[in-house]
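Query structure, 499 C-alpha cells:
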C-alpha cells in the first residue's frame, strides 16, 4: 500500500477546515497539507443540512472569516448563501484542490521515533483502507455525529400513520404543503423551521417541553450596510466585525452579572413582538440567559407567524404517538400529517477518531484541553472548536493562527514534537462546557476536561483568546517541545515546572 506523507493533515472540509487551509498556506507556506473529507462535497454543516429555512444563528460579520469580507446585505444569512461563501473561499485560494473526498478518518497513531502520525481512513465508496502520514494532525470535523441526530424514544411511534423526520435527515421529497405539522423542540433548528414551514403548511405547531430564550434581530445590519457603502470592503468588514464582537461580549457578560435584568429585557422584547394578549410563559425559561444558548430570529419571523395564526406554541410533555399525531401528558392530542423532531444533535469528539500515542490507546475524555484546542499528553494534534457564546469562526480563526505559530516555532528550533503537559498538582478539574443544554449534558463525559487555570481554562472570551493565541508566548512553560531533527544539535525540552 502506498502511503502519502504531508506536513499537516486537516480532517474536515467545512468552515473550520477551509479556514485552516487558508491559514496554513498563508502563515506556514512551506508546509505541505491535504484535507480529508468524509463526504463528497465541501461545506460541512452548510452542505449537510437541507431543512427549510436553514440559516446562521450568528451574524456573518463574525461567522465569516477574518480574511474574507462578507459582502451580502443580509447579516443573518441563509444556508445556501453561506455554502456559496465557503465554496468561493476555497476556489479563490486553491484550497479546493487540496481536498480528498470520500475519506472517513478512523484511526491515528503517533510514533515519537518517527515524529509522525499514521492516519488510517476508510473510503466511503468502496470500504477500502488508505493510510497517510503527517507530522501534525489538525482535526476540523466539528463536534457532532454526522450519521444521525438525536432522536429520543417515543412510545407508540409505530402507530403513527404520518411521517416522522429529523432535520439532519431532511430530503427533497418531504411534503408539507397544506399539511398539519408539529415541530418538536424549541432550539435554533425549531425556531428556524416553524416560520419557514408556516409559509406553506396548513398550520405548524411548535411543541416544546420547556421554553428557550428567543431574541429578535434585524436580518440586515443597517450600520454595516452604510459603512460598506462608504469604506473599502476590508476596512468596513473589520470595523463591523469588532463592533459585533464587542457587543456580543458585553451582552454575554451582562447575562452573567445581571441575569434578572437581561431576562426582563428579553421578555419585554418578546411581549413587544407578540402583543399584550399573548401568553409569553411559552418564552419564559426556568434558567438564566446563557445557561443555554439563546435563539436568534431575524426580523422576528417566528413571532410574526405566531401573530398571523400560521403557527402556535404548545408547552407540554409527550405521552405517546397516536395514529393521527401526538397525545400530550395534559390529555390534548395534536393532529399532524408530518412531525419534525428538532430534538438536537448527538455530540461526538473528533468524529469518533481512535487515537494512539506510542502504542498506548488514548482516552481523550481523561485528558485536559489545552487552550481549547490540544490535549494533554497527545503530541502534535489540535482540534478546531468555536465559541458557544459567540460565532464559531472567531475562535477557529485564532486556533488556526496559533497552530501556524506552533509549527513555525518547531521549524525554527528543529524540534519536531509539541506536547501539552499538566504539571500543576493544584489545578482543579472542570467540565469542558458550562452549558445546561440537553445535547451538551448527554455527551459531556465523552469530552476532555478543562482546568481551573490557564492555559487549561476555557474563558469563552474573544479578547482574552486573542491575546493568548495571537500574541502569547508559544513557550509558555506548559507546552513541552522535544524530539530534535536527526542530525540537529540536541536542545533541552521545555517542561513545565510545578508552581
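Result returned for the query:
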Amino acid at each position: 500500500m502506498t502511503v502519502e506523507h504531508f506536513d499537516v493533515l486537516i480532517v474536515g472540509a467545512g468552515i473550520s477546515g477551509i479556514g485552516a487551509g487558508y491559514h496554513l498556506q498563508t502563515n506556514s507556506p512551506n508546509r505541505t497539507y491535504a484535507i480529508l473529507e468524509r463526504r463528497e462535497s465541501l461545506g460541512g454543516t452548510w452542505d449537510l443540512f437541507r431543512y427549510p429555512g436553514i440559516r446562521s444563528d450568528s451574524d456573518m460579520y463574525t461567522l465569516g472569516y477574518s480574511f474574507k469580507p462578507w459582502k451580502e446585505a443580509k447579516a443573518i444569512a441563509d444556508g445556501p448563501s453561506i455554502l456559496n461563501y465557503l465554496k468561493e473561499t476555497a476556489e479563490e485560494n486553491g484550497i479546493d484542490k487540496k481536498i480528498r473526498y470520500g475519506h472517513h478518518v478512523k484511526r491515528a497513531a503517533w510514533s515519537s521515533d518517527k515524529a509522525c502520525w499514521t492516519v488510517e481512513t476508510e473510503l466511503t465508496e468502496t470500504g477500502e483502507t488508505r493510510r497517510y502520514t503527517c507530522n501534525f494532525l489538525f482535526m476540523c470535523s466539528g463536534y457532532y455525529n454526522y450519521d444521525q441526530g438525536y432522536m429520543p424514544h417515543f412510545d407508540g411511534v409505530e402507530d403513527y400513520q404520518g411521517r416522522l423526520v429529523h432535520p439532519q435527515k431532511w430530503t427533497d421529497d418531504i411534503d408539507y404543503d397544506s399539511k398539519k405539522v408539529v415541530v418538536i423542540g424549541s432550539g435554533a433548528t425549531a425556531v428556524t423551521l416553524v416560520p419557514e414551514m408556516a409559509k406553506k403548511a396548513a398550520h405548524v405547531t411548535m411543541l416544546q417541553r420547556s421554553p428557550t430564550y428567543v431574541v429578535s434581530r434585524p436580518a440586515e445590519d443597517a450600520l454595516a450596510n452604510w459603512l460598506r457603502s462608504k469604506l473599502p470592503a476590508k476596512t468596513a468588514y473589520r470595523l463591523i466585525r469588532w463592533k459585533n464582537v464587542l457587543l456580543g461580549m458585553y451582552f454575554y457578560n451582562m447575562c452573567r452579572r445581571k441575569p434578572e435584568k437581561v431576562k426582563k429585557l428579553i421578555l419585554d422584547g418578546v411581549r413587544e413582538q407578540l402583543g399584550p394578549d399573548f401568553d409569553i410563559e411559552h418564552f419564559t425559561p426556568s434558567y438564566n440567559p446563557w445557561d443555554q444558548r439563546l435563539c436568534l430570529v431575524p426580523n422576528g419571523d417566528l413571532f410574526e407567524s405566531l401573530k398571523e395564526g400560521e403557527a402556535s406554541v404548545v408547552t407540554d410533555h409527550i405521552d405517546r404517538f397516536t395514529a393521527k399525531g401526538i397525545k400530550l401528558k395534559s390529555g390534548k392530542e395534536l393532529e399532524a400529517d408530518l412531525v419534525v423532531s428538532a430534538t438536537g444533535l448527538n455530540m461526538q469528539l473528533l468524529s469518533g477518531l481512535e487515537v494512539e500515542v506510542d502504542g498506548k490507546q488514548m482516552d481523550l475524555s481523561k485528558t485536559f484541553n489545552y487552550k481549547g484546542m490540544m490535549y494533554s499528553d497527545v503530541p502534535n494534534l489540535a482540534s478546531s472548536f468555536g465559541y458557544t457564546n459567540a460565532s464559531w469562526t472567531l475562535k477557529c480563526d485564532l486556533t488556526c493562527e496559533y497552530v501556524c505559530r506552533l509549527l513555525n516555532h518547531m521549524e525554527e528550533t528543529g524540534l519536531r514534537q509539541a506536547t501539552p503537559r499538566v504539571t500543576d498538582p493544584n489545578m482543579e478539574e472542570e467540565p469542558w462546557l458550562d452549558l445546561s443544554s440537553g445535547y451538551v449534558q448527554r455527551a459531556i463525559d465523552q469530552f476532555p476536561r478543562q482546568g481551573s487555570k490557564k492555559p487549561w481554562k476555557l474563558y469563552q472570551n474573544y479578547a482574552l483568546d486573542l491575546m493568548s493565541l495571537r500574541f502569547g508566548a508559544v513557550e509558555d512553560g506548559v507546552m513541552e517541545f522535544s524530539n530534535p531533527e536527526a542530525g540537529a544539535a540536541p536542545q533541552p525540552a521545555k517542561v513545565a515546572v510545578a508552581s
